[in-house]
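Quick log. Single chain, no ligands specified.
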Amino acid sequence: YLEALFKEGGGGDNLAVAVQDPGFLIDSSMPIPGEYLSTFDKTMGPATIMTQPQSQTVAELTPVTFSVVADGTPPYTYQWKRNGSDITDATNMTYTIARVPMADNGAKFSVAVAGAQGNATSADATLTVTADTAAPTIVEAAGGADRASVRVKFSEWITPATAEKASNYKIDQGVTVSAAKLAPDNVTVMLTTSSQTDDTLYNLTVNGVQDTSAAANTIATDSKIAFRAAKFIPGIAKWERWNNLNGDTGNIDTFVANLADPAWGRIPNVTGNSSYMGSPRNVADNYGCRVATYFVPPKTGNYVFFMSSDDQGYLYLSTDDKPENKKLIAKMDPWANAYQWLKTIDQRSDQFFGTEWPGFDTITLTAGKRYYMEFDFREGGGGDGCEATYIMAGDPDPAENATSMKLNGTVIGVFDSVDNLAPIVGDTIHIDKPVFNKGDTVTLSIDPAKIVGATPLTYQWRQNKDNIPGATSPSLVFANADARAVGDYSLIVSNSKGSTTLSGGSADDNNRVLMSNAYLIEAEDYNYNTGQTMPAASTMPYKGDAYKDLTDQAVLDVDYFAAPDKSGGAALAYNRHTSGDAGVVDMKGGTPDSNNDAGVVSDIGRARGSSGGATWTVDANYAVGWTSTGQWQNYTRTVPNGKYVVVAGIARDGQNAGEINMSVSVVANPKKADGSTWDGSVVVPGNQQGVTKIGDFVHQGTGAWSSNDLLPARTADGSIATVALDGTVTLRWSGNRNDGDMDYLLLYPAPEVSAVGTAKIALSGTNVTISEDPAGGSTVQSATAVTGPWTDVGPAPQTQAVGAGAKFYRLKQ
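-> predicted structure:
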């Protein structure tokens, strides 16, 4: 039996298997020839049809797929036929018609299959097509930012001849339509109009537009829709994102060229607004993004602009308010972290040799005048996003990695209608108790009155980038809060035009919730000299530095394990302060340089602990980086007696599910220098250190190396893991794949789980309500089978609409 598996990312793709036989009869430089292979799911002999194509009935202009399953000696070739005639390029096991025309009503489809030992032809499958009798309607209309265009969207595909007839469109209040252009999506028409008055409500009347059906259904006479002309809205930039570009966009130049090419016809996958000249960070991979705004100089003078993007990016500034007059003034190559303004000279407009600005490195602007500004960048993998800022010529450069940006507030803005805007949130997440005591009520909230954009609005709270079931209001309340409330919070505010995310994470401590009385373990401070520990590391609040003088004293296979192909047999060092920013060597055995490029680096994510009602930041904070599969470190500490939840501060670039995969365990017999265990028993030579797993940290990537999300250890069923610890214990932090930065562990008193009440269900009209009696704070879970899998719905009680099929519910604490 032979099997090969592979996964395709982007670009080319292939798989082949070769073999070298003892007699050298097979060419080992080529894939194994078919004469040496046979299948186990086919019968040798002439081709036969096992599953015939099936007759189908579909609506006009909807998709249909025919398929066949053949038996007999492979390989097979296929040729689909319509009414007995070959269909060009229809040579696969399946044949799909994306939009079935009325002309195919009654057509018969069959397929001829050729096998290695004989051929077969399937029976006919008859296609029945029901006519489209519905006329197109107007879905929406929106005034363009140029105040001389209108975008109109229809309910279905429409014909170019009727869509692009300007006389089919009329606008009141003296606005005229001079041209109409159908977009490649075949449902959107862009109208060119005379000048519109800012923020004025207009009515658009449409006649004569027909759909693409055989009946050519015509829109209802004098179909009307209202739209509002754009106005200047200060304080925002608009961004557009085109996803999945790894296959068709090789670099920033290709992406920019595509943006300028009307034939490209790409409608952005995601749109949104920023309160600064930039886009959200750490949101996706393999995309292109355009950010646009108008810059309004606060005073007349010479300006210097700075940009930062991940990955390649171009910054443009127009000589006036017209996008067509934009000039390239800076570029980013290859990438920079958020607010990293000074990585290359090309990032600043006064040193970019390739500038297109008429004054070369001197950009002189007039106060109060509007200048169109655009930022285009392309993202491959890892971190992503962009920002821009400025100074007046002669002012100090912006601080490297400083988060304060001047390209925000009243100096930027866009032309648009409020009704066309994704949510602009003029508020931050408010947390009444960012460090709470166990049993407190903790409330997170925003003010809906400070949100501008189309209505209605929807809300979704997230903890550590995971949606919280049922948390869909402007506030999130934890009554009788415990360790389960610890984490980094974000809020997605959405409307029909897009969404805005108020992000959490260690890069924004305002969105982090901690519980008091945490026990902190720094990742770099693991055991040394065969199981030894520094007592200072067990005293809270721990500020770091206890291990700084223990040079090269960690023992391989006892205090840590690094795979031979990664470690090179090197012991790990703790001399963190010998050369400026240099950190501990990583689990691969490399030594970091002054730029913190390798392994463990300083000041990653600002590890935080809490003692009583106070918080502290570890002074000498590092992270163990890039552990490989199977590598681990042991941590021996004296822990107060109790039951704990283990929370890890972890960072890993990327957005994919499962990119973080680590675990934490209790070590049963860590060896001391004299060969005994901590409980005094003798270790039999050759015995391995026994471990009992507490739980796993399995999660999507955090999106950046500097963002340490707070992830609780979980059991196999997804529940938060708990462990009883007492006195001197040893924990092991393990990597289960190529993981990212391991920064710190926080031990919190475990929640006191009460008994689950009785699940109650009541029917009211077309809804059922699942409740708990007596109320005990349980979570309602649902599944389509009693054996699961089970999914959290939200805190009890929950009301659910009655649907088709069975649905099972249960309660969990």
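Confidence is low (pLDDT under 50) at residues 564-573, 575-607, 678-687.
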